[in-house]
Each structure stands twice: as structure tokens, then as C-alpha cells.
Design goal:
Elements lengths: L10 E7 L6 H9 L7 E7 L8 E5 L2 E5 L1 H4 L2 E5 L1
Antiparallel strand pairs: 1-2, 1-5, 2-3, 3-4
């Protein structure tokens, strides 16, 4: 399952990221925020407009806004 499909409130771990699908600068920013393989994450909130973008993702004690396209590049396993 990809991160963009994870139900709200469900805890998961990122198992793989298709970094080649992301712009290099955006990939670096996500890594700097701790969004990388092995990170425990959960969706806190989804946007309300059209594409339901952005997603509010809990990473540790932070909540980070992530584009749906970025979340679709992240494979997760439910915990």
C-alpha cells in the first residue's frame, strides 16, 4: 500500500520510497524532515479540495504537509 492510500489514524512504517519519481530538491527536503525508509508515520488529515491535497503526515512528534504525489511514491506497511 502507498502512503496516500493509508486510512486516517492508521500507523504504518515506510518500507520503500521511489526517490527517482521525485524532484531531487523535494526528495532532500522529505529526507531532512525524517520521511525516509524505516520512519513510522500516520495520516492525520487530508485536504478537502478536489485531489484531497495536501496530506498531514505525523512523523515522530511532528506533523508535516506532504503532497499526494509524494505520498504515492512511498510504500508503507501497516503496524
Amino acid at each position: 500500500m502507498t502512503l496516500d492510500l493509508l486510512p486516517i489514524g492508521q500507523n504504518a512504517r515506510i518500507v520503500a520510497v521511489a526517490w527517482n519519481e521525485l524532484v531531487q530538491e523535494e526528495a532532500q527536503r522529505l529526507r531532512a524532515l525524517g520521511i525516509d525508509e524505516g520512519a513510522k508515520v500516520a495520516i492525520s488529515h487530508r485536504g478537502v479540495f478536489g485531489g484531497r491535497d495536501p496530506l498531514a503526515v505525523s512523523v515522530g512528534r511532528m506533523i508535516v504537509a506532504v503532497r499526494r504525489a509524494h505520498a504515492a511514491a512511498m510504500e508503507v506497511e501497516v503496524l
